[in-house]
Design a protein that fits this description.
mainly alpha; Rhopdopsin 7-helix transmembrane proteins; 3-stranded mixed β-sheet; 10 helices; globular; disordered N terminus; cell membrane; membrane
Length: 310
């Protein structure tokens, strides 16, 4: 028996971020500035870590991976959204929608696992400093990073393939500004039971388990910091993980609001606004958070800027 392609919809129409934008040029300019800042900021972080030997440590290796994930996240969504702002009919092809869904799901799943790996790195650095070199060797860091990207890729591939097996007969209006799983799934005219089961499993294993592991890591970190006698030592220990803790808080607050809920409780209009946080605002803020109080990154960035002055 030959497999058949039941997909009847060849393209989708995006509702966009705003139903009736009154200040389209202002919105375009604002979002373009955020996007360019996110790309340049994260690229500077990657470049600074690559060329500055003092930053060739496990912590900065994972920060470079996070910057790469943030570039992928923003670039999977924002260029098409910016283009649609000046189009009367905001369309995306079926193949383009699936590609966007794959890229975004890859970046979001990878970031969840990566933040856990980063929290483990901080746990080892603060709770087992004498064993840090052995427990976070170069080979172990590369293996962890490869595992992180493998988990994100497999998760994204599973959701994408499950989406491809569905029938889309119409309507084809996506109530969002990009192809995310819940609003696309709502348009299917065939059973989405298996998709919802896999989404639930991803919520448990990617979101809940990683959140729990990150929480456990920071519980041990906080206990270890309180055991430090000198206030200066406590401040130094906390400063090594404060940036990561802030990034974790920003990312998980939006992810939990959007995904850790029953499908029936989704409010797509509100979710569009929250999606701006994790597709644009968070990738823009992450480089700022990691470089604002980090003198080593500041020194490295000055070395690669063309207008560097000593």
């Amino acid at each position: 028996m030959e497999p058949s392609n039941h997909t009847r919809v060849t393209d989708f129409i995006m509702q966009g971020l705003f139903d009736h934008p009154q200040h389209q040029r202002l919105i375009f300019g604002l979002f373009l500035c955020f996007y360019m800042t996110a790309i340049m900021g994260n690229s500077l972080i990657i470049g600074a870590i690559a060329i500055h030997p003092p930053l060739h440590t496990p912590m900065y290796f994972f920060i470079a991976n996070l910057a790469l994930v943030d570039i992928l996240c923003s670039s999977s969504v924002l260029p098409k959204m910016l283009k649609n702002l000046f189009q009367e009919k905001k369309t995306i092809s079926f193949d383009g929608c699936i590609a966007q869904l794959f890229a975004f799901t890859l970046s979001s799943g990878t970031e969840l696992v990566l933040l856990t790996a980063m929290s483990y790195d901080r746990y080892v650095a603060i709770c087992h400093p004498l064993r840090y070199v052995n427990l976070m060797s170069k080979d172990i860091c590369i293996s962890l990073a490869a595992g992180v990207w493998a988990v994100g890729t497999i998760n994204s591939l599973v959701h994408t393939l499950l989406m491809l097996r569905l029938d889309f007969c119409g309507p084809n209006l996506i109530r969002h500004f990009f192809c995310e799983i819940p609003p696309v799934l709502a348009l299917s005219c065939s059973s989405t039971y298996l998709n919802e089961i896999m989404i639930f499993m991803a919520d448990i294993f990617l979101a809940m388990v990683n959140f729990l592991l990150t929480t456990v890591s920071y519980s041990f970190i906080i206990i270890a910091i309180f055991k430090i006698q000198s206030s200066k030592g406590k401040q130094r220990a906390f400063s090594t993980c404060s940036s990561h803790l802030l990034v974790v808080s920003l990312y998980y607050s939006t992810i939990i609001y959007t995904y850790i809920r029953p499908t029936s409780s989704y409010s797509l209009d509100k979710d569009k606004m929250v999606a701006i946080m994790y597709t644009l605002v968070t990738p823009t803020l992450n480089p700022v958070i990691y470089s604002l109080r980090n003198n080593e990154i500041k020194v490295a960035i000055r070395k690669i800027l063309p207008f560097n002055t000593k």
